[in-house]
């Protein structure tokens, strides 16, 4: 069983990357092979509306015809047993690299008639990290954005799951940053007390995904 983790944060060792690593460890604890790719190491664009993926009878039908650093990643996303995406929230949505991947991954498989050409039924998870707390998230545009992404992933693979990590610790040293909106002490406390729980939830997501891959009947639950 192979699980692919895709980090959509430009930071390779911070919240999102740490949570993805925990998810990978969870999957590995059940014998899975894992791989993490940092999307910000790659050079690619989002969908360019060429519609090659929609051309009836063409070689590129239901495939992204654009060729760049994302091409082998999309190929892997077609062949692995489970995927976990991770992205911080930037200005209310996933980061630009993750958004570009989302377009290139989903659009070729989803027809205008809502036919689904993704060949697999696999678990796909999405770990979101953000500065705002649960109170601000509730009922917000960010929450709606997350629900919409979950709908797309569910449509495609039959199993989309979100792990939402709020009120993250953003800077090594808050005293150096021009910002008074967040209380550094509260952030530190949250980091110490709650982030370990977030990491455990990520670990359990990876572990659960490995179980689902072993027993596909769990996909229906
Ligand atoms: C350009 C930029 C925009 C951001 N916009 C938001 C936002 O709209 N809402 C929010 O809650 N956090 C926002 N954040 C904070 C990040 O989502 C948060 O710190 C996240 O945990 C960072 O992930 P990382 O530690 O993996 O890099 C923003 C951060 C940056 C750099």
The total count of helices amounts to: 7
Described by strand count, sense and barrel closure, the largest sheet is:
6 strands, mixed
**Strand segment tally:** 6
Task: Identify the CATH class.
Answer: Alpha Beta
- Integer tally of domains: 1
- Please identify the structural class as seen in this structure: alpha/beta
Distance between the termini: 20 Å
Radius of gyration: 18 Å
Query: How is the CATH topology named?
Result: Rossmann fold
Bound molecules: flavin mononucleotide
Can you walk through the features of this model?
With 221 residues, this protein is of the alpha/beta class. It has a single domain, classed as Flavodoxin domain (Rossmann fold). The chain is 38% helix and 17% strand. The chain is built from 7 helices and 6 strands; from the N terminus they run βαβαββαβααβαα. Helix 1 links the parallel strand 1 and strand 2 (33-38). Helix 1 runs parallel beside helix 7. It is globular, with a radius of gyration of 18 Å. The chain starts with a strand and ends in a 7-residue tail after the last helix. The model has no long low-confidence stretch (mean pLDDT 96). The structure holds flavin mononucleotide. The site of flavin mononucleotide has 17 residues, from helix 1 and strand 3.
């Amino acid at each position: 069983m192979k699980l692919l983790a895709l980090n959509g944060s430009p930071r390779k060792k911070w919240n999102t990357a740490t949570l993805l690593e925990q998810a990978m460890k969870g999957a590995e604890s059940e014998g899975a092979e894992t791989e993490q790719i940092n999307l910000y190491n790659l050079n690619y664009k989002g969908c360019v509306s060429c519609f090659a993926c929609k051309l009836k009878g063409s070689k590129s039908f239901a495939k992204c015809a654009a060729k760049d650093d994302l091409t082998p990643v999309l190929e892997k996303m077609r062949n692995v047993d489970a995927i976990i995406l991770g992205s911080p929230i930037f200005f209310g949505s996933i980061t630009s690299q993750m958004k570009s991947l989302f377009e290139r991954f989903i659009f070729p498989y989803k027809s205008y008639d809502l036919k689904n050409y993704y060949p697999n039924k696999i678990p796909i998870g999405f770990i979101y990290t953000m500065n705002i707390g649960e109170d601000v998230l509730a009922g917000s545009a960010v929450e709606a954005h997350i629900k919409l992404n979950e709908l797309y992933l569910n449509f495609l693979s039959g199993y989309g799951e979100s792990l939402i990590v709020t009120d993250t610790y953003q800077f090594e040293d808050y005293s150096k940053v021009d910002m008074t909106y967040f209380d550094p002490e509260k952030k530190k406390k949250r980091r110490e007390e709650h982030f370990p729980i977030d990491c455990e939830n990520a670990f359990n997501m990876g572990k659960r995904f490995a179980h689902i891959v072993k027993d596909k009947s769990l996909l229906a639950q």
